[in-house]
């Protein structure tokens, strides 16, 4: 799966995986373009996955691996490709709807203009219509014209109603696509892109209304050694477990994200350093309170611990500087023996 490969690329076997991908590409006679390299990383990292099986099939058939083939595979199997395809499809549907509505409005305008001409002509003729038969003919013509305009207006209303529902459906779909693009597939927390945007927004808001915002960075202790011992699938299990605890305690307006391979970050709008320190200790204690077991073999894995650091934003401070100070606090926790929370506001450099 994509998340399995992405985790491997942040672990000790990343370079070995990259070398294998290049070797396989050279054997298959595939040029090492950035897109081909990304495809082959997933191929060698997860050969039994959907993308791996498709590349195996293509190679078995001795099909030429062209740029078009690579783009087709990326659109079908890589998350970013599927996202782009969904956005393009939604845009095409929206364009059709807007074109249809535009045509309906144009016809309605023509009908209204014709109706106006009919009324003007009737106004000019009514004074000359002395006989009842002439008046009856005028009234009949006006009635027909009015009925025609009413029918066309009703058609336009139905078309607009249908388009409104379709646009609402597209808006909901695109919002879901946007959420998916901002969500880490493995942990269901916000991903790095979403975190970067939210940190910028939170700092701007704090600066605008002179409010407080605190940032925390958390890291799973000895995760590399854990991955080397038990494998990446079990490592994924640990990541999901830690993320579930972080996500449950970090409800809105807090924003929790997977910041890196085994690193997480939480933004605390409106909360000071002491409040955040208490919340992080609650997370740390809950994570460390359970002895985990390996799902596939039921082997006992022992307890997982985390280290954390936090920093409270200072007036005028950017998100980058705030993140740097939170990282310094995290490193202090690592140096201090791990399984602890360091309040960066208490570090000597924060004085």
UniProtKB/TrEMBL annotation:
<dbReference type="GO" id="GO:0043709">
    <property type="term" value="P:cell adhesion involved in single-species biofilm formation"/>
</dbReference>
<dbReference type="InterPro" id="IPR043128">
    <property type="entry name" value="Rev_trsase/Diguanyl_cyclase"/>
</dbReference>
<dbReference type="GO" id="GO:0005886">
    <property type="term" value="C:plasma membrane"/>
</dbReference>
<dbReference type="InterPro" id="IPR000160">
    <property type="entry name" value="GGDEF_dom"/>
</dbReference>
<dbReference type="InterPro" id="IPR029787">
    <property type="entry name" value="Nucleotide_cyclase"/>
</dbReference>
<dbReference type="Pfam" id="PF00990">
    <property type="entry name" value="GGDEF"/>
</dbReference>
<feature type="domain" description="GGDEF">
    <location>
        <begin position="211"/>
        <end position="346"/>
    </location>
</feature>
<keyword id="KW-0175">Coiled coil</keyword>
<protein>
    <recommendedName>
        <fullName>diguanylate cyclase</fullName>
        <ecNumber>2.7.7.65</ecNumber>
    </recommendedName>
</protein>
<feature type="coiled-coil region">
    <location>
        <begin position="146"/>
        <end position="180"/>
    </location>
</feature>
<dbReference type="GO" id="GO:1902201">
    <property type="term" value="P:negative regulation of bacterial-type flagellum-dependent cell motility"/>
</dbReference>
<dbReference type="GO" id="GO:0052621">
    <property type="term" value="F:diguanylate cyclase activity"/>
</dbReference>
<dbReference type="InterPro" id="IPR050469">
    <property type="entry name" value="Diguanylate_Cyclase"/>
</dbReference>
């Amino acid at each position: 799966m994509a998340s399995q490969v992405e985790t491997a690329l942040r672990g000790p076997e990343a370079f070995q995986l990259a070398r294998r991908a290049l070797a396989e590409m050279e054997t298959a006679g595939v040029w090492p373009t950035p897109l081909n390299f990304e495809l082959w990383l997933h191929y060698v990292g997860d050969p039994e996955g959907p993308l791996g099986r498709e590349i195996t099939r293509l190679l078995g058939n001795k099909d030429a691996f062209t740029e078009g083939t690579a783009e087709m595979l990326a659109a079908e199997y890589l998350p970013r490709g599927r996202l782009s395809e969904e956005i393009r499809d939604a845009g095409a549907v929206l364009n059709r709807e807007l074109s249809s509505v535009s045509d309906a409005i144009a016809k309605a305008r023509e009908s209204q203009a014709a109706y106006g001409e009919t009324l003007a002509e009737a106004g000019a003729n009514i004074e000359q219509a002395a006989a009842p038969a002439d008046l009856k003919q005028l009234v009949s013509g006006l009635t027909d014209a009015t009925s025609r305009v009413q029918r066309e207006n009703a058609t336009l209303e139905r078309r607009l109603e249908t388009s409104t529902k379709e646009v609402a459906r597209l808006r909901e779909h695109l919002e879901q696509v946007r959420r998916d693009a901002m969500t880490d597939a493995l942990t269901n927390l916000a991903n790095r892109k979403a975190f970067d945007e939210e940190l910028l927004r939170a700092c701007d808001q704090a600066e605008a209304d002179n409010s407080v915002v605190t940032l925390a960075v958390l890291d799973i202790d000895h995760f590399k050694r854990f991955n080397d011992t038990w494998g990446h699938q079990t490592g994924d299990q640990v990541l999901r477990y830690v993320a579930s605890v972080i996500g449950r305690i970090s409800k809105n307006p807090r924003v929790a994200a997977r910041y890196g391979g085994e690193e997480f970050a939480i933004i605390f709008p409106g909360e000071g350093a002491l409040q955040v320190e208490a919340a992080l200790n609650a997370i740390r204690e809950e994570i460390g309170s359970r002895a985990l077991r390996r799902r596939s073999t039921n082997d006992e894995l022992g307890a997982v611990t985390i280290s954390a650091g936090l920093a409270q934003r200072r007036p005028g401070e950017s998100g980058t500087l705030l993140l740097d100070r939170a990282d310094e606090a995290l490193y202090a926790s690592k140096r201090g023996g791990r399984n602890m929370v360091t309040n960066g506001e208490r570090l000597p450099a924060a004085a």
